[in-house]
Amino acid sequence: MNWQSILQRQQGWTIDKANEFRLSIEEATELYSNAPLHELTMAADKRRKLFFPSGEVTYLVDRNVNYTNVCTINCQFCSFYRPPGHDETYTQSFEEISNRVSELEKIGGSRILMQGGVNPELPFSWYLDLISHLTNNHPNIQLDCFSPIEIEGIADVSGMSTFEVLKQLKEVGLHGLPGGGAEMLVDEVRSDVSPKKGSPDNWLRVMEEAQSIGLTTSATNVFGFGESLNQRVEHMSRIRTLQDSSIEKYGRGFTSFIAWPVQLETNSFGKRNRGQNKYVLGAGPTEYIRHVAISRLFFDNISSIQASWPTMGLGIAQMALLSGANDAGSTMMEENVVSASGTSKISASEIELQNTIIRAGFIPVKRDSDYNLLHTEIVEKITKDLAAPIPSQH
Ligand code: SF4
Q: Are 109 and 61 in contact (CB under 8 A)?
């Protein structure tokens, strides 16, 4: 088995024959390790076209809200959190959060992605009241809030099961769970970089519970902790396996997969290894593009692969769209977690996302959190002054 024969066989892949041509972990690792970049991206681009033949690339107008930075989990790669009692802790009031949602409504947004730390000072009633408040005041905004580790934290504080926490939050208006906190769903990696986060099984269990009651979920992947390529594919495999099972049991699973390299500028993980981690770990653009292409080829049961502009920039996100990704991410309006470890661009306007998509040769289409397509107005005529025509990618 070598990369040439694997890619040759993948030429026969169609949506109807996805099972027959499914990539194994070993095959994906061989491609990741040895296939030349252009061969890999061409195969991934061809696969993207089978899922999205019309050449449309989606994006979302949304807002991030990081409601509290109090956290007890101490992930090595996180510069955002502050331990309880630290003088830089904050928890936003309902009014502050609501004001942020109002700003999103003013630009025609459709969802908020709200994540924070695992804050033991907040009772379950605070979360229920917050979601009720937002549902009542912003009925048209989808509320994707609290990643699995936050749900676990709420369950610990309240003495309830994570399933019961999810059910009660859904009853008051929760729409979905962000995919954050997955990082690497591989025991050896996780126990090194975020030992208090618990095993990968916990993240997968909470996500399955959310999917079982109809909450919208997405899957993420942070890589570059020094793990092997085989472990990166193993992470994808854990998600692919749950996706198979959830689609069979509940008729739904993750809407999308998004990966980005760990940021190492300012956190303790970057400073480890006598400061060398910052230089030798993480991943640059070429490695990132390989990762996107592998994820497109590996996930035959998740149709949407998202490009990550906050960590890679809009230019590399554009290259990701030519390497298997079909979604340009979202406007975000603010981002405080990943950016605390080193990224500087924390917001993209709708026109920036449209421009990125159009100039890569695709058609921009606005979507909501569930990937329903929305009416899209091209914010500005972007192409009129370009020196050369844009090649169509469809
Ligand atoms: S990544 Fe999340 S769980 Fe980990 S320390 Fe930061 S806020 Fe806490």
A: yes
Q: Which atom of ligand 1 is nearest to the CA of 116?
A: 7
What is the CATH number for 38? 3.20.20.70
Does some domain include residue 130?
Answer: yes
Residue 387 counted as domain residue: no
Write out the residue range of the structural domain in which residue 221 sits: 19-367
Closest CA to 367 of 106, 62, 97, 33: 62
Q: Is 118 in the pocket of ligand 1 (CB under 6 A)?
A: yes
Q: Is 377 exposed, middle or buried (0-12, 13-18, 19+ CB in 10 A)?
A: exposed
What residue has token string 């470890």? Answer: 341
Tens-of-pLDDT digits for all 394 residues of the chain? 899 999 999 999 999 999 999 999 999 999 999 999 999 999 999 999 999 999 999 999 999 999 999 999 999 889 899 999 999 999 999 999 999 999 999 999 999 999 999 999 999 999 999 999 999 999 999 999 999 999 999 999 999 999 999 999 999 999 999 999 999 999 999 998 999 998 999 999 999 999 999 999 999 999 999 999 999 999 999 999 999 999 999 999 999 999 999 988 777 777 887 878 888 888 899 999 999 999 999 999 999 999 999 989 999 999 999 999 999 999 988 777 777 777 777 788 999 999 999 999 999 999 999 999 999 988 766 666 666 667 777 7
* 3 in a structural domain: no
Q: In sequence order, which residues have a C-beta less than 8 Å from that of residue 232 and are 6 or more positions away?
A: 32, 184, 221, 223, 291, 294
Number of folded domains that form the chain: 1
Residue 222 beta carbon below 6 angstroms from any ligand 1 atom: no
Q: Quick check: CB of 67 below 6 Å from ligand 1?
A: no
Closest residue (by CA) to atom 4 of ligand 1? 75
Binding site membership of 236 for ligand 1 (Cβ less than 6 Å): no
Q: Does residue 275 sit within a domain?
A: yes
